[in-house]
Design goal:
This is NifU-like domain protein. The chain is α+β, with helices and mostly antiparallel strands and 79 residues long. It has one domain: GMP Synthetase, Chain A, domain 3, CATH 3.30.300.130. It is 47% helix and 27% strand. The chain has 2 helices and 3 strands; from the N terminus they run H-E-E-H-E. It has a 3-stranded mixed beta sheet, covered by helices on one side. Helix 2 links the parallel strand 2 and strand 3. The longest helix has 21 residues. It is globular and about 35 Å long.
């Protein structure tokens, strides 16, 4: 998979979870992909400072991204 294909797959994953974040007044942006293994995202809006954002990141975002791009090892939120 090329870097461009990987980025497209990650964007598809984010598009899948974005409606759930938006329903709570938040959003998410892809910041970078490092070594085709680590994805850096930024939670936005109501997601910033939300007490469950780490759980959302691990159980929702990371799981969905890995479904689209299994080679991803970690998703990190840049605050």
């Amino acid at each position: 998979m090329t870097t461009q294909e990987l980025k497209l797959n990650i964007e598809k994953a984010l598009d899948e979870i974005r409606p759930f974040l938006e329903s709570d007044g938040g959003n998410i942006s892809l910041i970078s992909i490092e070594d085709n293994k680590i994805v850096k995202v930024q939670l936005e809006g109501a997601c910033v400072g939300c007490s469950v954002n780490q759980m959302t990141l691990k159980s929702g975002v990371e799981m969905t991204i890995k479904k689209y791009a299994p080679q991803i090892e970690q998703v990190i939120n840049i605050s």
